[in-house]
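Predict structure. Chain length: 519.
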Amino acid sequence: MASPALPQDARQNNDVDNHNATTSEARPSSKGEETTNPPRTEGDASTGILSLLPADSVTDHVLKIGTQELAYTATAGTLSLFGQDGARSAKIFYTAYVARNRQPGRPLTFVFNGGPGAASAYLHLGLVGPRILDFGPNGQDGTSPTLVDNPDSWLEFTDLVLIDPVGTGWSRGASDNVASNFYGVNQDAESIAKAVALYVNHNESMASPKYLLGESYGGFRAAKVASALKDGQGILVSGIIMLSPLIEGQLLFGASQYPLGAALQLPSLAAAEMERRNAFSPKAIREAEQFAMTDYLVTLAGPEPSGNKARDFYARISQLTGIPEAVVSRTRGFLADTYVKHSKGDEFEVVSPYDASFAVSDPYPESDADRSNDPILDGFTRAYGAAFASYARNELGFRTEMTYTLLAKDVNDRWEWGRRGPNGGTRAQASATGDIRDLLSVTPSFRVLVAQGYSDAITPYGISKYVIDHLPSSLAAGRVGLKLYRGGHMFYTRPSSRHDLTADARAFFSGQIGKVQGE
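Prediction complete.
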């Protein structure tokens, strides 16, 4: 199963192309190049892996949104990065969508997913792009998905540039050794910042308000890239949108040991149980939040309860989450990963950390340990990879024999969470709060929107709420918002939640942060 320690955990995906009809002809275009700073540069773009990447493809399209038609130009191509020795160190694949009748002041949003090791196909074909992947009537069939026009595309109110970090999608280092120099928090942020700067400078977009959108680790990345843009490129972004983000590693990775981490996880598990019982209500969610941050937190922080107090306490947790009381008692109320195998009682089903309301038959019912693939990450959402490869070839005209890597396990395994060396950082030390505070402080117009699904158990919304609640009001008031939606980590796979998020994003881009603040 995918480890909840790494949102959108990296797993290698060997996708193949499907066939869709080509909608327009491709024509080549030029691109910008800039120097990046990995110490080793090996390989040659004319003979190595980078030679498989074709010239940029530019195509014209029309998106129908309701009764309106939006004409836009799509560019599928690469941005080259160079080392200090002048050799090309990497090519970063990107897809840009620009409205042909764009007006001055129209925003420009750079989009990436997380992992680390995830390509942008999730947000591309799942949320913001002009085309979206339809998973069938129940929204969960990845065997024969279809591409349709996206009625909720963010292209309606912002131009888009979707970026795949090195090692994901079709972005590659010149060699394996060179690629490893991009696999770390700071290196990654700096390379993405340089790619953003390249695009901005070579497309005369400096005057456009610039935003960053990232999901999961990509939310963490958005804060780091915003800082890197400011410090290294002299570019100030107007705001970031963090979807289901990792913000504070010490809160996310402490649910199995520390009372606060467990308390911030509990409301998401309660929301999932409400969804399974078709009993979801905002009032019940608020009651679960109140219990989590009072009786639950205090009891976990104290000595083990006994007698009637213990029975009442464990019964309340069981009622909220659906986990049998005997299991809750055995773990002293710390649920951590216990919910995966036990949320459906004795029904021999497992639930997904990516949406704890989503259950499938347990492939290993005889084992008390969870050994299964994740029902969502390894289930229907895998189709995003093959679908994007087909879409890029047949509709965007970007034809390559290189495998499109949706989730790269190698990138994830080699990721550096802190400084290099024997005392390097860990994922539990990962923190974006300082970046958010600094950006709010030095850029008065900078704003943040955090969007999350209620039943996301891999990056529970309680953590984001806690972080936002503890920002200085002098920085956050009217500038930082949290919005919650039905669904899990990738809540946008639900059409209603995707529609609601798009409406809130439209308000955010227009400066109406007050209308989406709080929950």
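Summary: Residues 1-43, 515-519 have pLDDT under 50 and may be disordered.
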